[in-house]
Design brief:
The complex is a heterodimer of chains A (642) and B (53).
Chain A: H1 2-6, E1 16-22, E2 28-34, H2 49-53, E3 57-59, E4 68-70, E5 72-73, E6 85-86, H3 101-105, E7 118-124, E8 127-129, E9 133-135, E10 152-154, H4 155-162, E11 183-190, H5 206-220, E12 225-230, H6 240-249, E13 253-256, E14 261-264, E15 271-277, E16 282-288, E17 290-295, E18 297-299, H7 303-307, H8 318-328, E19 355-357, H9 367-387, E20 397-399, H10 409-413, E21 419-420, E22 431-432, H11 442-446, E23 452-454, H12 459-469, E24 478-483, H13 487-496, E25 505-510, H14 518-526, E26 531-536, H15 547-565, E27 572-576, H16 582-596, H17 601-614
Parallel strand pairs in A: 8-19, 10-17, 11-12, 11-17, 12-13, 24-25, 24-26, 26-27
Antiparallel strand pairs in A: 1-2, 2-7, 3-4, 5-6, 9-18, 14-15, 15-16, 20-23, 21-22
Helix pairs in contact in A: 4-5, 5-6, 13-16
Chain B: E1 4-9, E2 15-19, E3 38-40, H1 43-52
Antiparallel strand pairs in B: 1-2, 1-3
Classes of the chains: A alpha/beta (642), B alpha+beta (53).
Chain lengths: 642, 53
C-alpha cells in the first residue's frame, strides 16, 4: 500500500465511490464521487492532537468493535495515506460547528469543515475490480452462542485480540473478564459448506487461518490447551501441510466433528461444548474458556440475503458491490462471486473486455493467491494499455442500416452495452461498437427486422445448415442448436468419454444460444423437422453475461405460439448442458430420441402446412423512412482506440 | 415473497409448483426428470393446448 501511495504514476482516490462507468475497452469514462475528507492528507502529520480532544467515542470497526475510537481518527496504523479521517456521521456536527475542538488544536490547520464532495470524470482504459468479500455473520448458528456468550468470538475478532496492534496489545484475553484463557476451542466451517444456513462452497482460508492461530497461541502461551472441531482439514498449498503437522506436534487436539451445542456456565463463564467425535463415534463434552468460530467468506452483498432481512446486515456493504455489478454488467457464478471470462484460460478477465478481477471478488482466496491474481490483473491491464490497440475476434455484429427500424431492442438485449441505442428524434441509428462486442449474437436473434448481421454465424449460413440436415431422412433427425462453450463442448465430452447415444441428433453450433433466432426454429419446422432442441450454458455459466436468459424468453415465446397454432410444444425442447456434462448430453439425446419416435409423418406434414401460411420464419418488413435511409450517422460514435 | 406457480414439464408431463417472479428469468428444471423444458401453466396455455389436441 505504501509503495502504491508513493508511486508517481498511481493516484489513490480514497473514500471515493464509483458512480458510473460508460464506454468500452480503452475508452471507459468513470464518474467517481470523491467524498469530503475534511482533513487534508497532504498536510496532516498524524500527530494525534485532534484525536485527544475529540469528545466523541464510537466502536472501532477495524478492531471489530472490541475497542473504541474517536470521531476523528487514524483508521489503522498502516493506513495509506497516513492521515487522520473525520467520520462525519459520528462527529457532533459542523454546519454550524457544534464542537470544533479538533480544528482548534490542529497546528497544521489541515482540518476544513467546509469541504464538500467532488465528482470526478476520469478517462480510463481498463478497470480492475477488487472489491473483496465479507466474513460470514455467524448469528445464524445460534447453537454456538455467538452474541449470547461473551467468550464466543469470530476468527476476525480473535485476530485482533492476538495482534500486537489490537485492543489488548497482543495479550490474548477473554472478553468477559479479560483473563488469559487456558483452554481455547476452534469450530471450523461456520457458514461454509452449509447450503442450508450458509454457503455451499469451502471458503478456502479458514483451515489454514485456524492452524496459524493455534500456532500463535502455542507460541505465546505454551501451557494453553487447544481443541479444533472440524469436518476435515484442508491444508493444500506450499508449506501448509507442514504447518498442520507442527500444530499437531504442539499438542493441539483435533476433534473430527462439529459441535451440536454450546452452553455457558454462568458462574465460571466456561463454555461447555457438546460434540460427537466421528472418529471414535462417541459423544464428548469439552469445557473451554474461549471459543473461536472460523467463519467463512461470502461475496459482498449476499450477507443480508443469507441472514434474512430481520437479522440485518452486520458488517456488509452490499450496496457498493451491487452497484459496481450493475455498472460493469458483471455476471456471477452460482456461489455469488463474479464470473471470469474463462475459468482456466482467462481467470482474471471479466467477460467484458478491459475489465479484470483481483482478489476475493472472484472467489475466496488467501493473501498469496490474491497477490498473484492482482499481479496477473495488473499485467493484463498494462499489456492492453501498452499495446495501444485491441485485437478482437471477427465474430461481431454489424448493422444493416437500410433495414433498421430504430426499435432499440438490440441495445436493450446486448449484455455488453456494445450498442448505443438509436435516437428517433435526431434520426441517429444505433451504433455498434465492435471493440465492445463479444459476438454472442443476441442482438441479431432479437432484431425483428433482420437488420443485424452476425459475422460467421449469419442467418443464411445457419438456415443452410438446417436445410442440409433436413434434405434427407428428416423423420430420423433432431435439429439441435448448441452453444460453442457449453453444450457443444458437452457433446464433445460425451464423445471423448465414449458415451453411447442415438445418432438422430444433428448439431448446429452457435457461439451462444442467444444467437438462436426464433426464425431458425420456425424454419426448421417449416422444412419438416420432427423435433428441435435449443441448448446452451447453465445460467451461471453463460459466457455472455445474461445472453442465455434471452434464449429462454425466446423459446417460451415459440412454445406459446406453437400452442396457439396447434403444434405440440413438446417438439421444441430446451436444455442447459455444461461442458462437463457429457453424461447429461448423452441422456438428453436418448430421451429426445424416444420422443422423436412419437412424432408421426402426418403431424409433421400438418405442421408444414400450418407454417407455410404463417411465414413465421420471415423477418418483419420495415415501414416508413428507415427503409430508404442508408447514410445516416450512428448514435454516440466514438473512435475505438486505446 | 414471490408466489408459487404451477409449471409442467414438456418432456415427462410432470406438474410441479415453484416460486415464480415474472420480472426475473430463472433457470428451472423438472424435479422429476431434470429437463429444462418446463412451461408456466397459464390458463391461456392450457386452453391453447386443449384446442390443439
Amino acid at each position: 500500500m505504501m509503495d502504491a501511495g508513493r508511486h508517481p504514476r498511481i493516484e489513490l482516490l480514497v473514500n471515493s465511490e464509483v458512480e458510473d462507468i460508460t464506454g468500452f475497452v480503452g475508452n471507459y469514462r468513470a464518474t467517481v464521487r470523491r467524498k469530503a475528507l475534511y482533513v487534508d492528507p497532504a498536510e496532516c502529520t498524524s500527530c494525534g492532537d485532534c484525536d485527544e480532544v475529540c469528545p466523541v467515542t464510537v466502536p472501532d470497526e477495524y478492531q471489530q468493535g472490541l475497542s473504541s475510537r474517536k470521531a476523528i481518527y487514524l483508521p489503522f496504523p498502516q493506513a495509506v495515506p497516513s492521515s487522520f479521517y473525520l467520520d462525519a456521521d459520528s462527529c457532533l456536527g459542523f454546519n454550524p460547528i457544534a464542537c470544533g475542538k479538533c480544528k482548534e488544536v490542529c497546528d497544521k490547520k489541515c482540518i476544513d469543515f467546509d469541504v464538500r464532495d467532488t465528482v470526478l470524470d476520469l478517462e480510463i482504459g481498463t478497470v480492475v475490480v477488487a472489491t473483496g468479500m465479507e466474513p460470514y455473520d455467524p448469528r445464524r448458528y445460534d447453537e454456538y452462542g455467538y452474541t449470547r456468550f461473551d467468550n464466543v468470538v469470530t476468527s476476525m475478532e480473535f485476530e485482533r485480540l492476538i495482534c500486537a496492534g489490537g485492543p489488548s496489545q497482543g495479550e490474548l484475553v477473554r472478553p468477559s473478564d479479560r483473563r488469559i484463557p487456558e483452554r481455547v476451542g476452534f469450530i471450523q466451517c461456520v457458514g461454509s459448506r452449509s447450503p442450508n444456513r450458509g454457503v455451499p462452497y469451502c471458503s478456502n482460508i479458514c483451515c489454514m487461518n485456524t492452524i496459524k492461530q493455534t500456532l500463535q497461541i502455542a507460541e505465546h502461551y505454551p501451557d494453553s490447551r487447544q481443541k479444533v472441531f472440524y469436518i476435515d482439514i484442508r491444508s493444500f498449498g506450499k508449506g501448509f501441510e507442514d504447518m498442520y503437522r507442527r500444530s499437531r506436534e504442539e499438542g493441539v487436539d483435533y476433534v473430527r466433528g462439529l459441535p451440536g451445542c454450546v452452553e455457558e456456565d454462568p458462574e465460571t463463564r466456561e463454555l461447555v461444548v457438546e460434540v460427537e467425535n466421528t472418529l471414535t463415534g462417541r459423544r464428548e463434552t469439552h469445557r473451554l474458556d474461549m471459543l473461536v468460530l472460523a467463519t467463512g467468506l461470502v461475496p459482498r452483498g449476499f450477507q443480508s440475503a443469507l441472514l434474512g432481512d430481520s437479522a440485518g446486515n452486520g458488517n456488509g456493504n452490499g450496496k457498493s458491490r451491487r452497484s459496481i455489478d450493475e455498472i460493469l454488467s458483471l455476471s456471477h457464478t452460482s456461489d455469488g462471486f463474479v464470473m471470469e471470462a474463462h475459468p482456466k484460460l482467462k481467470p482474471v478477465d471479466a467477460p467484458t473486455r478491459g475489465v479484470y478481477f483481483a482478489g476475493c471478488v472472484e472467489s475466496p482466496k488467501d493473501v498469496k493467491d490474491s497477490v498473484t491474481q492482482a499481479g496477473a490483473a495488473a499485467m493484463r491491464a498494462s499489456n492492453l494499455l501498452g499495446a495501444g490497440q485491441v485485437r478482437i475476434e471477427a465474430i461481431t455484429a454489424e448493422l444493416l442500416s437500410d433495414l433498421c427500424a430504430e426499435c432499440k431492442i438490440c441495445a436493450t438485449v446486448c449484455p455488453f452495452n456494445a450498442i448505443v441505442e438509436a435516437d428517433k428524434k435526431t434520426g441517429l441509428l444505433p451504433d455498434f461498437i465492435e471493440a465492445a462486442c463479444a459476438g454472442c449474437g443476441t442482438c441479431a436473434a432479437e432484431c425483428p427486422f433482420d437488420a443485424i448481421v452476425m459475422h460467421h454465424f449469419e442467418d443464411a449460413q445457419i438456415t443452410a445448415q438446417i436445410d442440409g440436415i433436413l434434405a434427407e431422412d428428416r423423420m430420423e433427425k433432431i435439429v439441435a442448436f448448441a452453444c460453442n462453450w457449453c453444450s457443444y463442448a458437452g457433446g464433445d465430452n460425451a464423445g471423448t468419454s465414449r458415451l453411447q447415444y442415438p445418432p438422430a441428433i444433428r448439431l448446429i453450433r452457435t457461439m451462444c444460444s442467444g444467437r438462436v433466432d426464433q426464425r431458425f426454429i420456425w424454419h426448421a419446422f417449416e422444412r419438416g423437422a420432427p423435433m428441435v432442441l435449443v441448448s446452451g450454458c447453465h445460467f451461471s455459466d453463460c459466457h455472455y453475461i445474461d445472453a442465455v436468459t434471452w434464449t429462454q424468453r425466446r423459446v417460451e415465446k415459440v412454445w406459446t405460439q406453437m400452442e396457439k397454432l396447434g403444434i405440440r410444444p413438446e417438439r421444441l425442447q430446451l436444455e442447459w448442458i455444461s461442458a462437463a456434462e457429457g453424461q447429461k448430453f448423452a441422456r438428453v439425446m436418448r430421451e429426445l430420441d424416444r420422443m422423436l419416435r412419437t412424432v408421426t409423418e402426418e403431424e409433421v406434414a400438418e405442421t408444414v402446412e400450418i407454417l407455410s401460411k404463417k411465414k413465421l420464419s420471415q423477418p418483419k418488413k420495415v415501414l416508413g423512412p428507415a427503409a430508404t435511409v442508408s447514410d445516416r450517422p450512428a448514435a454516440g460514435r466514438v473512435a475505438a482506440t486505446v | 415473497m414471490s408466489p408459487n406457480k404451477t409449471f409442467y414439464c414438456l418432456r415427462c408431463q410432470h406438474r410441479f409448483a415453484v416460486t415464480y417472479d415474472a420480472k426475473q428469468v430463472a433457470e428451472r428444471s423438472c424435479p422429476k426428470c431434470g429437463s429444462n423444458s418446463v412451461r408456466l401453466e397459464t390458463p391461456a396455455a392450457v386452453a391453447a393446448r386443449e384446442k390443439g389436441k
